[in-house]
């Protein structure tokens, strides 16, 4: 995926500096949100043998442009532009969702938090467009629903190389 991120950055003329600025901003906003208590959905995890539980996002790394400039390309060497700081860090995690009908949710005494109204499938050339699937799927889905980007308050995507 890292090589795909490098290829897409080149194809869309996204410079190393732009990637670094975006990464700095992203980590800074995440730190500010943490400090303000906005990220309260983390359940503490106790690791056997570790002195403390993990209770905060340990992937937030506030940095400076000077620090970013010291990093070498992580994937396409020596001319790539994606670095360890502009990539998601290696992680392991878990989540769970219960997807059911409204009737079943009522039967179980549960209140739905979201509804799946429609979905689409897309596929892209894994060499040149591996990371563009969500982009094409979003456009296709909005078109099918007669909506625009302005009709949606929040999008949530897992994009390791946004």
Report on the structure:
The protein has 162 residues and is an all-alpha fold. It folds into 2 domains: 1-89, no CATH class; 96-162, no CATH class. The chain is 33% helix and 0% strand. The longest helix is centred in the first third of the chain and has 20 residues, at 16-35. The chain is globular. It starts with a helix and ends in a 17-residue tail after the last helix. The mean pLDDT is 89.
Q: Could you report the average pLDDT, rounded to the nearest whole number? A: 89
The total of helices stands at 5
Q: What is the number of independent domains?
A: 2
Which geometry do the CA atoms define?
A: globular
| Approximate helicity band | 25-40%
Strand residue percentage: under 5%
- What class, by secondary structure content? mainly alpha
Q: How much is the radius of gyration in Å? A: 19 Å
Major pleated sheet: none
Number of separate strands? 0
Distance between the termini: 11 Å
Task: Note the run of SSEs as H and E.
Answer: HHHHH
Provide the low-confidence segments as ranges: none
Oligomer: single chain
